[in-house]
Amino acid sequence: MAPSNKSVVKCFLDVVLDVPGPIPKTDIKEYLLSHSSLVDMPPPCGLKADLGRCRFDLAVAKQTDDKVCIVKIVNYKEKVKTQNAVQVCYGKPSQLCMSFLEKIEKRKEMPC
Hints:
Blueprint: E1 8-20, H1 25-34, E2 54-62, E3 67-81, H2 82-87, E4 92-95, H3 98-109
Antiparallel strand pairs: 1-3, 1-4, 2-3
C-alpha cells in the first residue's frame, strides 16, 4: 500500500511475519473482552495508534521454527488517509478491496 497525501482507505490488512510464538488464543480473547482500546493490546497484536472506530479481525497462523504470522483486518467506519493507516501497522500493510470481503461473506453462507 503506497501512501500518498490524497489517497484514502477504509479497509486494509496488517500482516506481521515471524512473531515468536505461540500466542494463546485465550489471552487475545480475554484481552479484547476486558479492554476497549486496540492501541493498548500487546504489540504486534493491536494497533500502534487510534484512528477512530473500526471493525477488527485477527488471525494467528503457525509458521515454521515456532514462529507465527499475525494477520489483522482493519475496517474503519469512515475512510482514513492511507499514510495514517500505514502508521498504525506493526507489519506490512496491504489494501483490501471490498469485493474481496464480499466474496468471503458469500463463501461463509455456502453449505459445506
